[in-house]
Each structure stands twice: as C-alpha cells, then as structure tokens.
Design brief:
The complex is a heterodimer of chains A (about 120) and B (about 110).
Chain A: E1 5-7, E2 10-13, E3 19-24, E4 31-37, E5 43-50, E6 53-56, E7 65-68, E8 75-79, E9 88-95, E10 106-107, E11 111-115
Parallel strand pairs in A: 2-11
Antiparallel strand pairs in A: 1-3, 3-8, 4-5, 4-9, 5-6, 7-8, 9-10, 9-11
Chain B: E1 3-5, E2 10-14, E3 19-21, E4 24-26, E5 31-38, E6 44-50, E7 56-58, E8 64-68, E9 73-78, E10 87-95, E11 103-104, E12 108-113
Parallel strand pairs in B: 2-12
Antiparallel strand pairs in B: 1-4, 3-9, 5-6, 5-10, 7-8, 8-9, 10-11, 10-12
The chains are: A mainly beta (about 120), B mainly beta (about 110).
Chain lengths: ~120, ~110
C-alpha cells in the first residue's frame, strides 16, 4: 500500500513564477492536509480539504495561495508569483474518511520549494 | 483556539539514560494528542497517540507518553535513549469535536550523545 506521494520533491522557482505542488493521498483516504515548515520552525497548518471541498483554509495566506482536491487526481497546492519568503518545505498528510475518528495523519516526504 | 507548546528547542541526553520531551496543550473539550518524529529531509512519522483510556500510551520504538489532564500535558518518554533516536519530535493536538484541524508544536530537537 503506497504511502502519501508528493511531487516534486524539490522545486526551484524564480521570483514571480508559479509553483504547483501535488499530493496523492494514501489509498482509501479522502482527507488531505497541507502544512508548511520553515527552516528551524514547526509545522504550520495551511488547509484541510476533502474531495472537491475546502473544509478549513484558515492557515492559507489570503493572496497568491490556493489549494484544490478534485474528484479525480491529486490535491494541488498552488503558489502564484512566488517570493523568497515562500521558500519552505510543504508537507501533505492524509487521513481516512471515518468521521470523528481521531486517526493519525500520514505524511508525505514533502516538497522543498526554493525561490531564487 | 487549539495550541501546543513544546518549551524546549533542544534536549540533550546521554545514550542509555531516560529521556523526556515535554508538551503542553490547550483545546476546548477533550483532546486527541499525538507524537511524531522527523528525520532530516524526511516527512513526519507517527509514534503514538492518546484518544481515551489509559493515561500511559505506548508507541513505536520503545517510546511512551503520559497524558495528564490536570496539567494539560502529554510528555514523551523513553526509558533508555539510543543515538538513533536523535531527531526532531513534534507534539500535535486535535479537539475531539467540532474540528478536524491538527495543530503541531514547534518541535524539539533531541540529541542523544554516545
């Protein structure tokens, strides 16, 4: 059973370009979370999605950042017009659809974005 | 609002000695509590969780954690540290009802010295 798959693992962009990070959850999981980890800092919650729905995006910057989890295909975290401060590791995690069950999150290996 | 505090940025311990990594939390209602470990350039790996029941929970690699409701703490422990335990440890909390948001602490770097 494949784990959470994130790609690309490493991404380099110049200021002003767009970054797209993809996440395929574990088989059978329909809940996806995105977190950002800055150097020497903890994980910051960004967004929580279920299939075709954004449930909680309270951690997403209001501008330039968006996320989706379509009915088919991976979840996408999109960062438009990247700036140097966007350089970070972005982690995706998934969990099964059992409502109310406090299962643990399963994390991918992360996508490391470097903005030049 | 939910929050997690890990008061120590780094913990140093000699190999073979017991280790403790501290975590306190704040959440409305009952908490679901988790510990994860992160090795360099890797994702987070689940260690253990507290949902309900016994206050002492056992997890992977010989780790355990004790839930203390009165002190709102969930400290991670291991009786005998290994050099290979050196890593970054994260505590996380989720409220039992009304939210599916998992909030993580800032992490504690554990260094086990040979």
């Amino acid at each position: 059973n494949a784990g959470v798959m994130q790609n690309p693992r490493h991404l380099v962009r110049r200021r002003g370009q767009e970054a797209r990070l993809r996440c395929s959850p574990m088989k059978g999981h329909s809940h996806v979370y995105w977190y950002r980890q800055l150097p020497e800092e903890g994980l910051k919650f960004m967004v929580y999605l279920q299939k075709e729905n954004i449930i909680d995006e309270s951690g997403m910057p209001k501008e330039r950042f968006s996320a989706e989890f379509p009915k088919e295909g991976p979840s996408i975290l999109r960062i438009q017009q990247v700036v140097r401060g966007d350089s970070a590791a972005y982690f995706c995690a998934s969990s099964p659809p059992t409502a109310g069950d406090a299962g643990e999150l399963f994390f991918g290996e992360g996508s490391r974005l470097t903005v030049l | 609002a939910q929050s997690v505090a890990q008061p120590e940025d780094q913990v140093n311990v000699a190999e073979g000695n017991p280790l403790t990594v501290k975590c306190t939390y704040s959440v409305s209602g009952n908490p679901y509590l988790f510990w994860y470990v992160q090795y360099p350039n890797r994702g987070l790996q689940f260690l253990l969780k507290y949902i309900t029941g016994d206050n002492l929970v056992k997890g992977s690699y010989g780790f355990e954690a004790e839930f203390n409701k009165s002190q709102t703490s969930f400290h991670l422990k291991k009786p005998s540290a290994l050099v290979s335990d050196s890593a970054l440890y994260f505590c996380a909390v989720r409220g039992a009802s009304g939210t599916y948001k998992y909030i993580f602490g800032t992490g504690t770097r554990l260094k086990v010295l040979a």
